[in-house]
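#lab-general

N.A. 3:47 PM
ok so I finally got the sequence cleaned up, no stray characters, all 198 residues accounted for. can someone with queue access submit it? mine expired

B.Y. 3:52 PM
send it over

N.A. 3:53 PM
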Amino acid sequence: MSPLSILVAFLSFLGGLWGAVYLQDRQVRRRHLGIVRALRAELRRVHSEGALENTGFHDGFGGVTLIPQLAPWVQGLLVELASGDTDYLREFMDLDRYLHNLAIAAPRVRDTQAHLTRMTDQLDFTEKSIPDDTLGILKCCKLKEEAEDKLRDAQFIADTDHKLVKGAVSDLLARIGRDEPRLASALRTNLPWRRPAR
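B.Y. 4:20 PM
back already:
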């Protein structure tokens, strides 16, 4: 073998290796771009399903509070994306926890409102039916005050959880908005040395 044929074979090998690595990198970037777009669509769904309205939550059919949860397929995408960027995984896990807390807090507000209504009705009934029963009226007043305190606490917790959900969704949407153009521009370039910095 001549040195020229050895050089040509070596350069062909390097060109093939470079091409394979470049195509694999491009495929991973295309997959990550698809994941980022799917996650953005999921965040928009969570945002549009009512959890982020001004009231924080609303009653659906039959008085059931509707708080959206992340779709089960999100976890698989996050694990795949976490190989390159663990911040997405952490932020989506935080959002999932905030949604879960809000799903617990919202019915608690409804239940404490119903309890306060019962205590108010009981006080009104006691005042009208037995106006001379001072001890009974005082006891009903105390129960009503306790119900009002519980309602304030439940509303504070629900409002706090609502703010956390709203902040997490807006932060994630902003982050995805920043990362999507970077991932998309990396897919459009054919020259690895002209690829934007990560």
